[in-house]
Design the sequence.
């Protein structure tokens, strides 16, 4: 009988006790577990988080399929890699209330951009360091621009305009009514410069070099470097490193032409070719900024408004022009 | 080689008769089994990080096919945890017999006293193996089903009916245990003949009657002996021995060959071929067909698998046997010859499975270290190995090992075929009758060499 009792104890401890203890140890934590899967299989689980201003939010992230990344939009926190079957831990601290968006930073599939979740942060602001979510209406809203309307340029250069060549022309742009690059398309700037008496001795191509100069005068090498980095991380998979719309994901996107397209919200179109002068030079910074913030409705182009800060979007817009203009 | 009786040593005999060591191993195995089920359900869904997948399909499988089955035969069955809960209820005790247990204690139906149900169970598992082997949730479910079916069977039927007639794993372990160099046999059948109590079958205060429903007094092959060692404990005549013997000794036994066991050989050989093609081959469409359960592609895959193991392989083998019979004008019936020569496929099949296992065991073994440190996918690092990166082991020598194993298996199969032919023929006719079967083995081995080594 004694042996039976010892045997029973052994069974209870090993067969029931150990698994039970493991389960209890696993669940005893104030850390939120987040599982990442490709968007078509569920994306982030859970995808709606809540946090308090000034209270740390402990997260443990793992991927249930392929490699993903984790970042919180409009924050300085560095992106984390979320690997299959492994756990990545992080702690977020918010000092401003608002609704933040977290998103995948790795190209995990054609619906990668749908991998998003929100963190609703409540409580009184503590002032300090993290950036607040902007509530200022973007320029395309203020200007009431139709982002989906075609905007072809009526003039295009024969070769890629160069800001450096523009400098060598010795034209002092301040003496011309300064064109507002944010609201004016490249073509409109060209027309404005062409009609000025001060450029009468210049060829059309040289005027295009001045247009490039107006672009370069309104940006900085640092901003272009930041824009290039953001572009490589977030845009190049579709639009391509060369801007030709030939990124690695591009072949999987449906090539429906824009005009007359039925916008179901689930359609995709071939990514825009940033090297196409006819299309690009008809756009203003405000239109490009609007498309980045709002996304391309019904095209598969993600909306980046809750992800990028205003400065990041500006840097991206400036960088996109490098596909049209030489520095 | 004359068997060496290991139980002559009082230490070995005492160790084997002792109930505690086996009990502790089985309880640890049961804890691991329960943990694997748990991990399958609540661990990470990423297969190569999940404890259940890594522990069961890589580690356990490696131990089973590379060590236990070739060297200890049904050694796994001796410590298998699956029938344990049912057995405890049936016995009403965890250790020695101590009275009445639970259960209806019914006899297993006569018509199913063969391994056809095990053949079917293994085939079903094989049809869904691409998913079972890679998805932790499905692995957890399958392991749980094993436990439930074993428990239910124990409560309805007598002794280890599940192990003997239903377990899909036990079926092939039994078949291949015939080559193992260990056996439990009686020392002197004459002693058993006059021993009226037959305590090895009926049980005694020291142990249970054979849980595997066999009478050790007439035991000549390992196939149905679970090495549970109860007969060693219950024999009052000290007439049961645990022997070391030559490899494949059972294959030399001309008696007791059966069609259900013969088909098991084809099922296992066919499954080794199919698995090699699906899991290691370069054919993406085949892989996705095996994985897409319920689709027309999977249906084609399933029908192909069934066709290969139940029609093509046995059919071709039947032709080979028939040619051998015709060439030698054998008087043995075709059915008997077919069943007999199929046992030549036992060493061939075992070596095919060893070669197949070698291809992924060493490549995937390093997944064990993170899984051990974090068995429930909870982010733990129990042994400091949670972040050990995947690294294949010994990959430069694996193809040579595989080639050696397969060629050795072919040679062994040919020698076995010759020995079986020698039971019916003499002189030159021996080789003549075995030759078509050898040809079958050669073609199969060549196919496996192509699939596994390229």
Sequence:
């Amino acid at each position: 009988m004694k042996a039976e009792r010892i045997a029973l104890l052994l069974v209870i401890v090993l067969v029931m006790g150990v698994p039970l203890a493991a389960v209890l140890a696993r669940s005893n934590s104030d850390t939120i577990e987040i599982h990442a899967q490709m968007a078509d299989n569920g994306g982030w689980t859970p995808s709606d988080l809540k946090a308090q201003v000034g209270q740390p939010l402990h997260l443990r992230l793992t991927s249930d399929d392929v490699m993903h990344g984790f970042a919180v939009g409009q924050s300085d926190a560095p992106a984390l890699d979320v690997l299959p079957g492994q756990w990545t831990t992080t702690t977020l601290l918010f000092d401003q209330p608002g609704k933040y968006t977290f998103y995948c930073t790795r190209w995990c599939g054609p619906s990668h951009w749908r991998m998003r979740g929100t963190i609703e942060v409540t409580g009184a602001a503590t002032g300090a360091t993290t950036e607040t979510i902007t509530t200022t209406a973007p320029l395309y809203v203020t200007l009431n621009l139709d982002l989906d309307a075609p905007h072809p340029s009526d003039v295009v250069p024969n070769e890629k305009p160069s800001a450096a060549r523009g400098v060598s022309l010795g034209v002092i742009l301040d003496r011309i009514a300064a064109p507002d690059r944010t609201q004016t398309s490249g073509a409109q700037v060209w027309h404005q410069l062409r009609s000025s008496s001060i450029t009468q001795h210049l060829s059309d191509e040289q005027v295009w070099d001045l247009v490039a100069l107006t672009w370069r005068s309104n940006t900085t090498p640092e901003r272009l470097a930041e824009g290039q980095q953001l572009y490589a991380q977030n845009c190049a998979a579709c639009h391509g490193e060369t801007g030709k719309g030939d990124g690695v994901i591009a072949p999987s996107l449906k090539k429906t032409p824009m005009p007359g397209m039925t916008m179901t919200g689930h359609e995709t179109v071939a990514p825009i070719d940033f090297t196409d002068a006819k299309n690009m030079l008809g756009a203003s910074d405000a239109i490009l900024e609007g498309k980045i913030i709002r996304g391309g409705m019904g095209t598969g182009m993600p909306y980046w408004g809750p992800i990028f800060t205003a400065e990041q979007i500006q840097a991206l817009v400036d960088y996109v022009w490098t596909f049209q203009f030489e520095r | 080689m004359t068997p060496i009786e290991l139980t002559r040593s009082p230490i070995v005999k005492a160790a084997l008769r002792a109930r505690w060591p086996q009990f502790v191993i089985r309880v640890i195995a049961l804890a691991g089994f329960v943990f694997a089920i748990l991990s399958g359900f609540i661990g990470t869904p990423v297969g190569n990080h999940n404890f259940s997948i890594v522990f069961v399909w890589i580690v356990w499988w490696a131990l089973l096919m590379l060590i236990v089955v070739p060297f200890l035969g049904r050694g796994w069955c001796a410590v298998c945890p699956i029938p344990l809960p049912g057995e405890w209820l049936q016995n009403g005790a965890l250790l020695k017999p101590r009275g009445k247990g639970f259960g209806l204690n019914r006899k297993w139906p006569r018509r199913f006293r063969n391994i056809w149900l095990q053949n079917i169970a293994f085939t079903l598992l094989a049809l869904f193996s691409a998913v079972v082997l890679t998805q932790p949730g499905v692995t957890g479910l399958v392991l749980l089903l094993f436990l439930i079916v074993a428990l239910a069977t124990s409560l309805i039927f007598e002794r280890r009916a599940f192990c003997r007639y239903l377990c899909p794993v036990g079926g092939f372990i039994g078949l291949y245990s015939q080559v193992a160099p260990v056996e439990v046999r009686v020392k002197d059948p004459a002693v058993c003949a006059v021993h009226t109590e037959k305590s090895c079958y009926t049980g005694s205060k020291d142990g249970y009657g054979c849980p595997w429903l066999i009478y050790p007094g007439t035991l000549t092959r390992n196939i149905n002996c679970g090495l549970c060692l109860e007969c060693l404990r219950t024999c009052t005549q000290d007439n049961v021995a645990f022997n070391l013997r030559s490899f494949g000794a059972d294959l030399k036994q001309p008696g007791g060959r059966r069609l259900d066991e013969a088909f098991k050989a084809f099922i296992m050989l066919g499954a080794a071929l199919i698995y090699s093609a699906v899991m290691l081959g370069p054919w993406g469409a085949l892989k996705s067909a095996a994985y897409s359960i319920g689709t027309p592609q999977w249906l084609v895959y399933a029908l192909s698998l069934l066709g290969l193991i139940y029609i093509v392989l046995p059919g071709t083998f039947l032709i080979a046997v028939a040619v051998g019979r015709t060439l030698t004008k054998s008087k043995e019936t075709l059915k008997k010859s077919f069943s007999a020569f199929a046992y030549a496929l036992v060493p061939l099949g075992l070596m095919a499975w060893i070669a197949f296992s070698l291809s992924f065991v060493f490549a995937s073994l390093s997944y064990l270290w993170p899984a051990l440190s974090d068995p429930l996918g909870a982010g733990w690092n129990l042994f400091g190995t949670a972040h050990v990166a995947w690294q294949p082991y010994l990959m430069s020598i694996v193809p040579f090992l595989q080639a050696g194993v397969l060629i050795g298996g072919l040679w062994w199969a040919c020698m076995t075929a010759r020995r079986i032919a020698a039971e019916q023929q003499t002189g030159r006719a021996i080789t003549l009758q075995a030759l078509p079967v050898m040809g079958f083995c050669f073609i199969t081995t060549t196919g496996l060499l192509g699939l596994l080594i390229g």
In short: DSSP finds ten helices and nine strands in chain A.
